[in-house]
Amino acid sequence: MDTTNDLHENIIESLTSGLMVIDSRTFQILSFNKALERITGLSRTQVLNRSVEEVFSYVQGLSCADLAREMWEKGVVTRPRMRVTRPTGEDVYRGLKAEPLYSRQGEAMGIVVHIEDVTEREILRESFSRYVAHQVVEAILSEKQKLNLSGCRQEVTILFADIRGFTELAESQEPEAVVSLLNGYFSRMVDVVLKYEGTLDKFVGDTVMAVFGAPMSREDDTERALRAAIEMQSEMVRFNAEREEAGEEPIHIGIGINTGIAIVGNVGSEKRMDYTVIGDAVNVADRIQNLSRGGEILVSEHTYRKASQVIRGRPLSSGRVRGRVNPVKIYLIEGLKEEGAPEDSQALEKNAATSDFTSASLSI
Question: What residue spans carry the Polar residues bias annotation (predicted)?
């Protein structure tokens, strides 16, 4: 029959999270379970009876004395996200929790430290936090969401927004002014994309590419993309008002949107991977964008049909897309059907009234 100590050791060894016990006076490691061996790559024979600071000297900013002081003051120390650079140069992430260990008589015996390997989780967080809204990142990282990064086919709505006449504008200004312009423009556009929980795919020159429906898919992806597009045009009106007050030339963007099946996932090499979408649906969205004039939003018929219950628009002449036999019907978005966005709708209606496309102009 196991003694009490043996039972405690068996419990410690059965834990899937890393655990070690430290002497509260000398900071020597008294216990080091198998899970922690796996997480750290160190064997217990290498670490037992050695000081924590000696064993983990490569971890910066983790003073045992400071940790112990904080623990005695607060009762527990929690570090949910610690970025650690190993001697090999590899970056890993660790979650740490430290709490006092007491004897049956209530005397402080040591410090119990729980360590979790959260590397994969934090890499995902770092990767997606730049491209998607905070709440989407948390949903991706939750156990309820199983994210396939290797590449899969799924329906998405792709949005392209591009500054009209940017080349000529850039040639007439100093590089610093161009960078300032792009930073202001990109910042506003990205804020709108994230507000509607879209994914910022990339910047290409002065073009913003956003995706709705990846990495998370919702029934209203297309509607959110269109609402985002309308607000982007509205945001450009405010941006231009600020530019005109500063004596700067206004800029205008054209937006193209398409909905279809695409390959979604990480694409690239071992040295650089990007989460993106590729496929014919993306190409069509880009070509539709090329047809839009400043202030306009053009969408494919499939996109329009999926959100026609909330979006007002009118069809334009159909055009042929390279590699496709059937013409693509394109719609000019005029605004939202429901009340509540008069500024957006009026701006789009004004632009729509001046649009006059022909079949030749829609040859894409």
Answer: 352-364
How confident is the model over 30-51, as a mean pLDDT?
A: 88
Residues 111 and 180 occupy one common structural domain: no
Provide the strand spans (E) within the chain: 18-23, 29-32, 77-85, 91-102, 108-117, 152-163, 199-204, 207-212, 253-268, 273-278, 297-300, 311-315, 330-336
pLDDT in tens, 178-221: 899 999 999 999 999 989 989 888 888 899 999 999 888 889 99
CATH number of the domain residue 202 falls in: 3.30.70.1230
Number of structural domains the chain divides into:
3
8 A C-beta contact, residue 289 and residue 162: yes
**Cα–Cα distance between 119 and 136 in angstroms, integer?**
19
- Give the domain extent around 132: 119-146
- Given a cut of 90, is residue 284 above it in pLDDT? yes
Question: Residue 159 phi/psi, 5° resolution?
Answer: -120, 130
Asked if 199 and 301 sit in the same domain, the reply is: yes
The structure's pTM equals: 0.62
Statement: residue 345 has pLDDT above 70: no
Cα 346–Cα 256–Cα 176 angle in degrees, nearest 5:
90
Whether residue 360 lies inside any domain: the answer is: no
Check whether residue 178 and residue 317 sit in a common domain.
yes
- Cα separation, 116 vs 109, in Å, equals 23
